Amino acid sequence: MTASQDNQSATTADSPHRQESAPTPAGNPLLDVAYIAVFAALIIALAFVAIPVGAAGVPIVLQNAAVILAGLILGRTRGFLTALLFLGLGLIGLPVLAGGKTTLAALGGPTIGYLVGYLVSATVAGSIAYLAPRGNRKALTIYLALGAIAALACQYLCGSVGMMFRADMSFGQALAVNVPFLIPDLIKAACAVAIASGVHLSLPDIRRKAFLK
């Protein structure tokens, strides 16, 4: 065997290793912006679905689940920015909240804590979801479920604190306001986990090639 053939064989033998060690392509920031805009639009569109419950003025909505979904799919940074964009559009007068309310109008009401909870929950959901090991469907589902439950707890906690200050309630009374929403919210969270799991399995690049981690 000639020296050139030896070099060619060595190159061929090394090629699989080189392919395996190739770095993941850098993310596209414009694609991240598009994801953020799409999920913000989805959250706003779901403002038209609201069912008033109880005397505290807190309706059953789909927006809280959509915020969690954004975090589960996009991760903490993009999830947070999605919620921030959604609420920011409401600050300039767009009716982005349930019942056609603006963020400005909600800031003066008892539900202000839930708005803060949207920002926190998207971040928490994304932080936990992106800890899941890649390629393991069972682990992914577990982390997504943990992220959704933790995010929902953050929404309840922030909302209850807001109720304490704006509705003159004790912490226990404020927490009790959330009881009628628990079962519907858990169902919505389960749906969000199922959707997020399907997206991550079918579109792994959403996580792997994210520019904004």
From TrEMBL:
The lineage of its organism: Bacteria, Bacillati, Actinomycetota, Actinomycetes, Mycobacteriales. One of its GO terms (cellular component) is plasma membrane. GO terms for molecular function: biotin transmembrane transporter activity. InterPro entries: BioY (IPR003784). The keyword Cell membrane applies. Belongs to the BioY family. The chain crosses the membrane at residues 33-58, 79-100, 112-131, 143-166, 186-203. Keywords: Cell membrane, Membrane, Transmembrane, Transmembrane helix, Transport. This is Biotin transporter. It comes from Corynebacterium matruchotii ATCC 33806. It is a multi-pass membrane protein. Residues 1-14 have a biased composition (Polar residues). It is found in: Cell membrane.
